[in-house]
């Protein structure tokens, strides 16, 4: 979400050049798919490297400004998961209430506005979204949506809360984007962020098959590297909980189909209408819901 380029061969979190290859390049000069209708094509990635200095992992990109592709994303599959999104949002808002009960909120990467639809009962909400198609849907739902990059938000805008759910792993220059966010958050304000933890035991167990390792994800944080990128721009780590991923057994089974060992169980759920529609909440290892507070008093 930036027009500034990631310096080649340098960690985008700490600037170190001490890197090692984690996973080989299987995308070449192709672009990854930018939607969520999973296929084997989604599992192809650019070379993933790990920083020996700060533990952050990231992709070596063959070209700059891949983010511009998000402007033209149309993702019907995303719409079909609205119910799961709303249920998840309710759990997330419950968690947020424990830290900050009210205020003005900006949801970065708000898609069609499912999170905003729930959060508006507690907060004054706005969204930021690159996709014209998603923005239009969110605007029709009555939300204030900024269809632009973080660098294009007027500097006088200030928020009590910024949320990034499943977004930071897509940033080409995460440290610069988080610095931009820090300028938008009032002193004493909060950032809530959901992303994967590449150091979690589940990520280590699954290796390249960990679901975060897919073409459109280019940053793979650990709790250490996430804390670092926020601390560097004046945030204090407050908590790191497990993200309350809420979904129907049907769509969970569709995702599980990628793992051969889970296929018989997945098929069982997909074939049974009652089981398929059953909603469950998973708090999986490695799904971080991290909370940061901007230093200072509001
Ligand atoms: Zn680093």
Automatic annotation (TrEMBL):
GO terms for biological process: methylation. It comes from the Archaea. This is Methyltransferase family protein. Signal peptide: none annotated. Pfam families: Methyltransf_23. SUPFAM superfamilies: S-adenosyl-L-methionine-dependent methyltransferases. InterPro entries: SAM-dependent_MTases_sf (IPR029063). Keywords: Methyltransferase, Transferase.
